[in-house]
Specification:
By secondary structure, the chain is mainly α. It has a domain of 45 residues. It has three helices and two strands, in the order ααββα. A two-stranded antiparallel sheet has the order 1-2. The protein is elongated and about 50 Å long. The two termini are 15 Å apart.
Length: 76
């Protein structure tokens, strides 16, 4: 088992930081976006962006491990 790359760790931490540490920046009812208060919209938005970040982290790791082992070493 290899250690994850810094890029994949950072991609994994983006949703965590966006939902946990930015609350004081956007904790307001107004403005309304798509009929939702901004803070609720922000959290719902990150529900959809988190899989994108995780896919990016996975893609970084897969391409890195394929480069280390070559194409013949990748089996499922």
């Amino acid at each position: 088992m290899t250690r994850p790359s810094i890029g994949s760790i950072l991609l994994g931490l983006i949703p965590f930081a966006a939902t946990c540490f930015s609350v004081s920046l956007w904790d307001r009812i107004h403005p309304m976006i798509f009929g939702l208060p901004f803070n609720f919209f922000w959290l719902v938005l990150w529900l959809f962006l988190t899989p994108v970040c995780m896919w990016g982290a996975y893609h970084c790791e897969v391409s890195r491990t394929k480069g280390d082992r070559g194409e013949e070493g990748s089996s499922r």
